[in-house]
Specification:
four-stranded mixed β-sheet
Length: about 200
């Protein structure tokens, strides 16, 4: 039986880089689950890679079709941005998957598929390093959104609090202060979880 490995962490903790390396690892053979969002595409992002970028109308159609597993809305400095997971050809009888999300979306996905099939991968990194990375990334954009960057950074303290981690049943964390070491630890853990019987 397959599993969904759920990659989480505060903004600029290195999730995207970790995700790409794990997806490229031929030993893991992970399939991707790409989230859907109504937020604008950022410079350097590609449709269907980081997200499926959709309109409010397209989101409403997915809801009518009953294909939404979980849906979140964030009141950003630029209006309401929505993110969701869509039940689109996920075959846990044969495949293992990797997805990036939040504690909230992890809990909803776990409720949908079952606790034994959704495995948390929580990434941690020093807040000062994260802030510097976030600022560097925003400065590289054609139209930097510093106010939104700051909002997300501050919101992470509440969204990834110790209490929320405990409520979600997240006990193990992976420190991303050395990327190669973090990737190796994640790979070993994923392979161990894959060998477990459900």
């Amino acid at each position: 039986m397959g599993k969904i490995f759920y990659l989480m962490g505060k903004s600029s903790s290195g999730k995207d880089t970790i995700y790409k390396q794990l997806m490229a690892d031929e030993d893991l053979h992970l399939k991707n689950i790409v989230l859907y969002t109504t937020r604008p595409i950022r410079q350097g992002e590609q449709e269907g890679i980081e997200y499926h970028f959709i309109t409010e109308e397209q989101l409403a159609n997915l809801e009518k079709e009953g294909r939404i597993i979980e849906l979140r809305a964030y009141d950003t400095c630029f209006g309401i941005w929505k993110y969701c997971t869509v039940d689109a050809h996920i075959d846990l009888d044969r495949e293992n998957y990797l997805i990036i999300g939040t504690i909230e979306s992890f809990c909803k996905t776990k409720a949908f598929y079952g606790e034994e099939k959704v495995i948390p991968l929580m990434i941690e990194l020093d807040d000062g390093i994260r802030l510097r990375r976030a600022l560097d990334r925003e400065m590289a954009q054609d139209q930097p959104k510093y106010d939104e960057m700051c909002r997300r950074y501050l919101a992470d303290a509440a969204n990834f609090s110790l209490e929320k981690k405990k409520e979600a049943g997240i006990e193990k964390e992976f420190l991303n202060d050395e990327l190669d070491v973090c990737i190796a630890e994640l790979k070993e853990y994923i392979l161990h979880e894959m060998r477990k019987r459900i």
